[in-house]
Specification:
The strands form 2 sheets. This protein has a 3-stranded antiparallel sheet with strand order 3-5-4. Strands 1-2 form a two-stranded antiparallel sheet. By secondary structure, it is mainly alpha-helical. The chain has 2 domains: 68 residues, no CATH class; 193 residues, no CATH class. The chain is elongated. The longest helix has 20 residues. Helix 5 crosses helix 6.
Length: 282
């Protein structure tokens, strides 16, 4: 096979990887190229080289499909404006904190990142953990006699504690100006990126998400949060092993029952439309 044809096939596989909601098992061509990537060293080298040329890094090829992440300054890099436009500095901090909180609750131990078990979590579960963790972290900073100016992460703890946990809209979903609204939006974004899907009572986090979290393992703020997670309690509080709620779809913007563990964000907040960004965890 000519080098040009090989490069074209490599680019085709990368194109599939850049469409996170395209299931490898549901597309015969994707499965064919994915299988070749896993078994043919020459083709694997070609895919990695083309990806690198585009500013992407192939991080894994689990059963779900090929997973790529943008390199620094890549045109595929995720920006918060892609997540939600018009964010002020406080909201940006809270979004980052919430994403780290979801990762900590989903994978509280380092070993969890190497295990492909099914993980289900709810917005309410993440909120309870983050509120307790932020209180503990804020209290510990206050007691630290050597602390200087409040660090940015300290501002995030306090901003989270200052925001109400739950504000309901007329439709029954969570408003944007509460922490459950921010958390629900974060889960919805993960659904849009093919890293999670809606299940009854919460969300199922997929291999694509686990691999992305594994790439940021060692982040100081993430490690601080994970140290506060009780793994046994997390498992006990997790949504049950229920069937995927196919009626809800995978768009993440559906309104779920108040008792379902993942109500939507109020539709009457005009700044709340999520624009799908890249696959990066952010």
């Amino acid at each position: 096979m000519s080098a040009a044809l090989e490069a074209g096939r490599a680019a085709e596989l990368i194109c599939f990887a850049l469409q996170p909601k395209v299931a490898r098992g549901a597309d015969e061509r994707y499965s064919e190229l994915w299988s070749e990537y896993r078994t043919d060293e020459g083709f694997r080298d070609a895919v990695d080289a083309v990806a690198n040329g585009l500013g992407l890094l192939v991080v894994d090829a689990p059963d779900q499909g090929l997973i790529v992440t943008p390199m620094e300054k890549s045109p595929f890099s995720f920006r918060l404006v892609d997540y939600q436009p018009g964010l002020d500095p406080t909201r940006r901090m809270l979004i980052g904190l919430v994403q780290l909180g979801i990762a900590a609750v989903a994978y509280p131990r380092e070993a969890d990142l190497e295990d492909d078990i099914v993980v289900r979590r709810s917005a309410e579960q993440v909120e309870r953990f983050l509120r307790g963790a932020c209180q503990a972290l804020a209290d510990s900073e206050v007691r630290d006699p050597e602390a200087g100016e409040v660090a940015e992460e300290g501002l995030a703890w306090r901003a989270y504690l200052a925001m109400p946990a739950s504000l309901r809209s007329k439709r029954g979903g969570y408003k944007a100006d509460c922490t459950l609204g921010i958390i629900t939006r974060a889960f919805s974004w993960l659904v849009e990126q093919g890293m999670a899907r809606s299940v009854k009572g919460g969300y199922q986090l997929l291999d694509r998400y686990r691999v992305q979290v594994r790439e940021v393992a060692g982040h100081m703020a993430l490690d601080r949060l994970r140290a506060l997670v009780d793994p046994e309690q997390v498992v006990q509080e997790a949504p049950g092993e229920s069937e995927v709620d196919l009626a809800a779809g995978e768009s993440g913007d559906e309104e779920l029952a108040d008792t379902g563990g993942s109500g939507d964000v109020a539709a009457d907040d005009e700044e709340d439309t999520v624009v799908a960004g890249s696959e990066a965890l952010g």
